[in-house]
Amino acid sequence: MNVVSYETHKPTHRDDKLSFVLVFAPCFVLLLSVAMLGRLVGLHWQQWLPGAEHKTSIFSGVHAAVYTVMSQLI
User: Fold this and answer.
1) pLDDT for the residue numbered 33
2) 72 burial class (0-12, 13-18, 19+ CB within 10 angstroms)?
3) CA–CA separation, 18 and 7 (whole Å)
4) CA–CA separation, 40 vs 8, rounded Å?
5) 45, 59 in Cβ contact below 8 A?
6) DSSP state string for 11-66
7) In whole angstroms, how large is the CA radius of gyration of the chain?
């Protein structure tokens, strides 16, 4: 008689946090560089980023845009 045991790997809170950071950080850096480039050139960067239309600060706009992009990825 063969006994087959399938162990399921349940992701821990630490694994979830690490994967969140590994997605959030590169997206934040990429969208921040786009926003900074737009600001240096003098264009309306809020229109380029999804979710950043009504934000006044560049960091809050990029933060909102990253969360919008991440919600569309998952």
Assistant:
1) 94
2) exposed
3) 22
4) 50
5) no
6) PPHHHHHHHHHHHHHHHHHHHHHHHHHHHHHT--GGGTSTT-TT--SHHHHHHHHH
7) 19
Summarised one tens digit per residue, pLDDT across range 5-35 is 566 666 666 777 887 888 889 999 999 999 9
d(CA 30, CA 62): 9
1 confidence band (pLDDT: 50, 70, 90) = low
Instruction: Identify the residue with better confidence: 36 or 55.
Output: 36
